[in-house]
Amino acid sequence: MQQIYLDNASTSFPKPREVSDAVYHYMMGMGSNIGRGGYASAYAAEEAVFAARQLLCNFFGGEDPKNVVFTKNITEALNVLLRGLLQPGDHVLVSAMEHNAVMRPLQLLGHELAADEQPSDTITFSRVPCDREGNLELEYLPKLVRPNTKAIVMTHASNVCGTLLPLTEVGAFCKEHNLLLIVDSAQSAGLFPIHMQSLGIDALAFTGHKGLLGPQGMGGFILREHMVEQVLPLIVGGTGSLSHTERTPTFMPDKFEAGTLNLPGIMGLAAGVRWLHERGLDNIRNHELALTEQLLAGLLALEQQGFLRIVGRKDVKQRTSVVSIADTTLDIAMVAHKLAAEYGIATRVGLHCAPNAHKTLGTYSTGTLRFSMGWHNSAADIATALAALEEVLRHGV
Questions:
Q1: Which residue in 62, 141, 240, 379 is deepest, having the highest Cβ count within 10 Å?
Q2: Distance CA 315, CA 103 (A)
Q3: Which parts of the chain fold into alpha helices (H)?
Q4: pTM for the complete prediction?
């Protein structure tokens, strides 16, 4: 049974051949560490890593390649940004759709601020409401800003329902109110263009293994120049630079890159981004959204018959290719299992590490069954998935 992979919001699969080739080339033809050796293969590795920084800086509209920092994933990147930036007494705003990669660090650092609570000497946060489609309710922004508000931390797109949040408007609001803007691009990078300078993004966190088509274990963040001194490192240690002192370097990117980097992952990530450049984001996005429109049309027909409920937007405006369903006539976990076991269709079921998003969308605590398309999927894949879903829901166990 051939698998139809519709779980690209978890990790993209398959990767372009160029990605695995780049990893193999490094492992077999280069292999050296960077900043530790004075020989040809070490210099070649260092040049390749710098080229990857330059590539990502251009891709995301950053200011300087040296401010591209590599981490093992976007969760680590967000932890560095939040725990390295926020100080006691700071207040931040988050959207109601945030992933636990944002919410758990904030919960660990402090607590959610009640509407009538006064600023305290701990780190606090408030949630900007979203509607039942996951759209950010912008009118709440001025009502939630406090004298000690430092930043807005926001995902660009929901990993539950695919709704895009309005970066342009939020960036303008941050500029007007002298707030920092920190963006989680996990679900949008590689599908929608993001330009940090144009959008007023001060720090952008990215992951390599989703839309950027790189391997797992690869992520990072990019800082605007004025952010470099404001963020403290989370992990320190050997960098290969300033080895005569036990003090952590203050220059970039060494300030944040202690220990050995995931060099094979960096090479694979760079190959994925180059592949995106060659294909064009518009082409990839148009392809995925065409499949999304096909899927939504089929799901809408099943919804009208009472078999399920589409969660979030029912059109392809202001959304990614992530689509969730709930309130199925069978338990959603059973539906997902039958789709995988009997039809070879890979999806994801559950709360997707975003409990408050599900509370906002009305799908807590059962969660949703999520389909997420990728560059490799076809109209035939979607037709097969819809037919299988209908058969499961009509005939049950």
A1: 62
A2: 28
A3: 17-25, 40-59, 74-85, 100-109, 141-144, 167-176, 196-199, 263-279, 281-304, 332-343, 355-361, 379-395
A4: 0.96
